Amino acid sequence: MINKLMQSSGFKRISIFVLIALVLYAMRSMINLILLTFIFTFLMNRLVQFIETKIPLNRRLIVVISYACIVGLLSYCLVMYLPMIIQEITALIKQLTAFYTSKHDNIILNYIVNRMEEVKISSYLEQGFQFLIKYFTDISSVTIQVLLALLLSIFCLLEKPRLIEFTKKFRNSKISSIYEEVEFFARKFVGTFGKVIEAQLIIAVVNCILTTISLWLLDFPQLGGLSIMVFVLGLIPVAGVIISLIPLVIIAYSIGGFMKVFYVGIAIFIIHGIEAYILNPNLMSSKTNLPVFYTFIVLIFSEHFFGVWGLIIGIPVFVFLLDVLEVTDHKKV
Fold it and tell me: What are the contacts of 296-302 at 24+ separation with CB within 8 A?
């Protein structure tokens, strides 16, 4: 009975999945590089495929030009705008901290601030400020990881046909059974995780642009820092909108009182409506429409185990697991 169970395809698939998970856990110190390489490769591959359909150029030439443009744009933005963004984030954190530490005429606001002070919100903000400054000043380690990920991804795309052909040789090797299962999980992973990450990125960019325009019309200060905050939080499904609304409301009250808060609420409500009823149905598969309860549970656990990365990749990984377990119709992806 045990021998029959161990020889079954289901047991073999589960065993390979556990093995892959253990390997990734053993390589957890390199998880940033692994995730960045996959995300860069997937997104740039989609961009190259799109350009190929529009412009009849050699594929390798398109890859080189695309990467040159992306790296050049990133380098220009870092050199020109990084100091300004650091200053704006510093001013933004100080403004939020000042709001919590100052007294207000409104009784309700004073009560809320006092309750927040009991859980040391201001100290958390200061710690967050110090973390951001350390993150931006310790740019060397981050830069190395990003450059390595870009280098690996460009080699992967330049040699994509040869890479696929070479990898297929394992199908007829002595580890063919393992290869088949790994290929199965790889296809599922690309078909769910990759596409959900792509959709989240597009939604975050659109939300960032619309929110920045709205805040500019409302005469908000520190637009650069707020734009980055909105974009990063926009990568977090559902919860990102709620989290980003808190500092926006605080700043709105600081610069214009309750009327400004009302206008910000309307703007965010409209933008969230565009995301929920236009972007999500067109970019996300129907199976990613998880109940809000499931979404928050996944985000809480993924943040606990994987930190900041967990907030971004938690939902895509969960959707990938649902697809592997065939909980949803994978043909709709």
Answer: 296/238, 296/239, 299/236, 299/237, 299/238, 299/239
What confidence tens digit (pLDDT) does each residue in 221-234 have?
Answer: 777 777 887 887 78
Q: How far apart are CA 211 and CA 54, in angstroms?
A: 31
For 113-121, what is the mean pLDDT? Answer: 52
End-to-end Cα spacing for the chain: 38
3-class secondary-structure state, position 221: coil
Q: Using CB atoms within 10 Å of the CB of residue 320, give its burial: 0 to 12 exposed, 13 to 18 middle, 19+ buried.
A: buried
Q: Identify the DSSP state of 173.
A: S
pTM for the complete prediction? 0.71
CB 206 within 8 A of CB 255: no
Q: Which two tokens stand for residue 287?
A: 């199976």
> C-alpha angle 136/25/320, rounded to 5°?
90
CA distance 132 to 135: 5
- Closest by CA to 254, choosing from 133, 65, 25, 101, is 101
